[in-house]
Amino acid sequence: MQPSREIKTSFTGGEVAPELLGRPDLRAWANGASRLRNVFIQPTGGVTRRPGLRHIATLPGAARLVPFEFNTEQTYLLVITAGQLQVFVDDAVLATVAGPWTVDMLPQLAWTQSADTLLLCHPEMVPQRVTRSSSTAWTVADWSFTTLPFHRFADASATMTASGNSGSVTLTTSVDVFTPAHVGTQVRLGGKRLVITSAATGSSATATVLDGLSILGPTQDWQEAAFSTAHGWPVSLCFHQNRLVVGGARDLPNRLWMSQVGDLFNFDLGTGLDNQGIEFGLMSDQVNAIRGVFSGYNLQVFTGGGEWMVSGSPLTPSTVQLTLQTRIGSPLTRMLRPVDVDGSTLFAARTGRSIYEFAYTSLQQIYQANDLALVSHHLVNSPQDMDYDQVNRLLHVVMADGAMGTLTLYRAEQVTAWTRQETAGLVTAVAELEGTVWLAVQRFGSTRLERFDAALALDAALTGSADTPKRDWSGLAHLEGQVVGVVADGAPAGDFLVSGGGILLDEAASSVQVGLGYTHEVVPLPPDLVTALGVSAAPLRLVSVTFRLLDTVSLAVDLGRGAQPVPFRRLDTALLDAAPPSFSGDVRLRALGWNRDASKPLWRIVDTTPLPMTLLSVTTETRITN
Which domains does the chain have, with CATH numbers? Predict the structure, then answer.
């Protein structure tokens, strides 16, 4: 039978789930792969070995990473650890300030930024305001509310009585209301505010009058502050139409508050004027604990049971409308901030098995949720954190198992391609800032701050240079006791043990890159014998395979007898000690033997060499017999 030729022009289908290996009829099959590890899919379709990770600092412990952009020229990475916030610029710490959060609070921290201020909240923490005065001067302080929102937590029939109308008074209620946690909490009696200074019993407390009281007898007209130590603090927040929006609180998980226009800490509802505060609850037949609020085309509210649209142009107490759009739901155990990608909002599903795109359709004037991991759900495992690299069009999602899923998303070209990134440790947090992707990684018992660096091909790596070539290189205390890879003067120099914070090379070098090695893999889907050759299964022989490469320095291919390096350039003796040059063009390899298992791939790329590799397309020539 004549040879059959198949050309794979892109990998824009990403890694396909094993359950779909019998579905060559799917559109993703033509451009998909069965395994993609430590590679990125380019928006144009090629697959490239991911950059290495540069070691920046060893952190005090578990961390959340927060990008802070003051203006186009002043950007900062805020690293939040237990009781501490560090400000990084150009890989250096500029400031360190203390904060009231604990390590247990980190997973549920939420934040939003406006100008020089970052607002932080957690249901068990007084909301915090992080303010930048200069690059090296930062402060952390409690929010200062102009007017708190209030809510009636007790039964509507319960009454409250004040012993006086000014100064220090005793408050008595007809049912048990007060606890020691009420100290410092505001209450409103007949529209007038008081602050509780002590709680003697469940039905008696001492308070200081803030506004002159006009009601002294028992009355049902009283409320407590919606946010307090007694009833918890805000869960999520954002800015929308010049209002501060608070979504949910510990004891009011399905309630939404919007501040007055231009007065971000004033939640007074007033008389319902257009610029005054707005408050309402989310009511439906399912769980509506708010897990995120996001300012997009409309105000979007993400809950444990579904996704809502808050409309109104502009939003006022009289124009606001609330509509349930989809019923996917968001995770309840961790705060995962939605991210904007080309006008759509990406969020993690409550099931922990997918990332959805929440997009507005102008024709139907509703939002729809599209599953972005429909054919790659095996790569999504309880997302812990995520952020979007707009420069490279990559969504990075940190998973519960410490790996990271990377989604190349380019809607205009119908590119939705997942790959998986693995390293010698556990990735725990991610943040993107001006095209730089930062990671918190647990390695060897400590948490490290690292970032992707296109100049590196090793992880937890550092670089060094010397005017005079030398063998001994130090400054590697973060890799003490580890076997590391070395790239010396642009060429792989082998593996070495870090001892005493340094290594001793076999040959002197002027520049080195030292770090942990990682393996990249590209494994195609099994051959589609039915559609390509018109038969269901038969012995198949791979005659040849041609790889089209771009700026590639190392390529190792397994054609059935183990991965072997490809000599796609002539190695002159005079060049053996020099950095290998990059190669662009076609490499054709011939294969031997017959493949009687149609479920196996015809070739695979598996390489640990810390050098660049970019694959643009693959052409396979096969022969089949019956």
Answer: 4-10+530-624 (no CATH), 60-145+231-386 (2.130.10.10), 150-225 (2.40.10), 459-516 (no CATH)
